[in-house]
Amino acid sequence: MNEVQKQYSDPDEIGLRELISVTWAGKWIVLVVTIIASLIASVYVFSLPNIYKSDVLLAAAEDSSLNIPGQLGGLAALAGVNLGEKGGDKTTLALQILKSRDFIGKFIEQNNLYIEIMAAEGWDRVTNSLVIDSEIYDSASNEWVREVKAPFKPKPSTMETFDEFKKLFSVNQDKTSGMITVSIEHYSPYLAKEWVDRLVKAINEDMRQRDLAEAERSIAYLNSKIDQTNIADVRSMLFSLIEEQTKTVMLANVREEYVLKTIDPAVVSEKKAKPNRILIIILTTILSSMIAVFGVIILHFNRRHTESLNINGH
């Protein structure tokens, strides 16, 4: 009895040798748990569809800001005329617009991307077609059939679609080189590449139209001021300002890649970006084995503690 009491005299004391011994004794439990978890993980990851990534490398277009003499710049400021932003500022503005809810929302609406974003669940390489979730969208009747609670409707709103699109879309700028990478991830590598190309074209066009509209308003305003003054020097300065705005219009109409120019164009990816199935299985195997070992140790010491209490009770 003394030997037994000595063995269980300190049930909370844990030694490394005992841990190894307990783990070895429960090796079959650990092995079975690890194998089952690995099999479940394998079935799961191989049921996941491939996701492909397409990206384009961009740089700021050459600085088209005009060298405005100080006198003209001061006059333009007094007249309330914007003579254009510096190239870096214009690029920063373009990137913020590119990520904005308004711009992406319009992009989704104009290209009617609701089904591709909200209802797709895979891609068929043989037919080069999307696999559509029939519980969300009925392709036969061309109707949205998903069940949602108010205020949502069967057909996703632009805001709801924008939230999903953000998960597929990324814009990153290298702080050292200033290079910009625009990326899209999707089940279809063809759609990913197409959307990247459209986004770059759309943001360049958006910035072009903004500058054109502003320059044309400035020209109209300056012309009206010319008609209101007979002072030769002022009229000469106003004509110079009109000339600068005319250059802005000319550059906007001539340059196709107005703000962002393509350095490395997007391509149709041949390799999936994710999921990394092997990595998931390895991590699952490691984690499940650790949990199993931990469980075996906990059960052992719980059992030992219970036996100790029973002995002391008697």
Report mean pLDDT, rounded to a whole number: 84
Query: Widest sheet: strand order?
Result: 6-7-1-8
Give me the Rg, rounded.
Answer: 33 Å
Query: How would the global form be characterised?
Result: elongated
Short précis:
The protein has 314 residues and is of the alpha+beta class. The protein is 58% helix and 12% strand. The longest helix is centred in the middle third of the chain and has 39 residues, at 189-227.
Structural summary, described in words:
The protein has 314 residues and is α+β, with helices and mostly antiparallel strands. It folds into 2 domains: 23-48 and 276-297; 52-264, no CATH class. It contains 11 helices and 8 strands. It has helices at residues 2-7, 16-25, 27-45, 70-79, 87-98, 101-111, 114-118, 158-168, 189-227, 232-254, 277-313; strands at 52-60, 120-124, 129-132, 137-138, 143-144, 169-173, 180-186, 260-264. Helix 5 (87-98) packs across helix 9. The longest helix has 39 residues, at 189-227.
Tags for this model:
2 domains, 4-stranded antiparallel β-sheet, two-stranded antiparallel ribbon
Question: Which helices and strands appear, and what pairs or packs with what?
Answer:
Layout: H1 2-7, H2 16-25, H3 27-45, E1 52-60, H4 70-79, H5 87-98, H6 101-111, H7 114-118, E2 120-124, E3 129-132, E4 137-138, E5 143-144, H8 158-168, E6 169-173, E7 180-186, H9 189-227, H10 232-254, E8 260-264, H11 277-313
Antiparallel strand pairs: 1-7, 1-8, 2-3, 4-5, 6-7
